[in-house]
Specification:
It is built from 16 helices and five strands. By secondary structure, the protein is mainly alpha-helical. Strand 2 and strand 3 form a beta hairpin. The longest helix has about 35 residues. The chain is globular and about 90 Å long.
Length: about 450
Amino acid sequence: MFETLKNAFKSKEIRVKIWLTLALILVYRIGCYIPVPTFDATALTKAFTEQNSDFLGLLNILSGGSMANATIFALGVLPFINSSIIMQLLALVIPALERLSKEGDEGRQKLTQITRIVAIVLAVVQAIGIVVGFKSYIRPIFPFESGQDNAILTMALTIVLLTAGSVMVMWLSERITEYGIGNGTSIIIFIGIIASAGTTMANAFKMVGANWTYIWNILGFILIVVAIFVFIVFMDGAERRVPVQYSKQIKGNKMYGGQSTYIPIRVGGSGVMPIIFATSLLMFPQMIIQLFAANTKAAAWYETYMGSGTAVYYVLLAVLILGFSYFYAMIQFNPDDVARNIQQYGGFIPGIRAGKPTSDFLKKVNNRVTFFGAVFLMLIALIPTFLFRALAIGDGTWASPALPFANSFSATGLLIVVSVALEINKQLESQIMMKHYKGFLK
């Protein structure tokens, strides 16, 4: 990684891209500190700390702490991510969208424009949800609304500011993708997670002054994070290689084929998406209850028996991760198409007949690899949660840990940080390689 960065800075073209990426990230981080004037930021930050909600904690981590601090970038890039996921799924069932995805650059540009529009709609919906959910923390800024319980104009201005901030973050992510290095959306989430974790760890070290024994909890936390990072990196490179042999073909005076290759089926091919889908699905009912039925018996029952942190919640999370892993693997890898392409170019898998037997074999291998990938995601989603909370208890309780790093690195955050770091490294290596090829051709 460090050697790649060293080589990247030797190239003027790549160096400019790196500095441009850092400049755009700086603009994003500045926006994360510009408050929305209609919110009581101090009271909202205190409420986020006291609620100890996994859902709100995850949203706050992904936004780089902007949501808890009530800044204009509180929604972050999440509406754009949700829009992209929705459009990917709709492209599988709506023929018109599927045709657009296969029409080259022009079709992809139209699809991107539709994704942006859907992202803005989602941003408006999420902004309305935040305003309704945290209405008690909104302070009227117009004189004629002072003293009113429902300051409609102030609430409307809040929705506009939050939506505009989300659109600004979406624009920054697209500029990073176009002119910088790596995927802009991933980099912005990466920076948000790192910023949140840094702030949380700084607060944890401040508490060592009151109780020096907390230093052992913090060191244990750091060691576990490093071990989990190593495990994720190891699993990220794990793959099952299915050998493919191409028969020799004579066309005219030339002979083609006769080479051996392989089909790489990655264990972690689904990435972090199954965890995101599973967490979002489980948190959605809890979010609706918190917004519209916070003080009812139904809300108390759900919180006690099915809310985040209960045994039922963790069982459902594991089952949904398994299900979404297979769902996402089905979207990414089509055994029938792969078998057809192998047969079309005169290839075969040793010991397997061409056609349907090849397709069935690839399907069986993919299902087995997906199962191990799903088990890996389940372990990453569940074990760190228990370990981090156990280390954060200190003088507190399991429900209310004394140290603040119980949710500083969520399972999703761990995977995103490692995946984005590896992706940036691959992007830099490929750009350095292209630069060397250009120099050779000159």
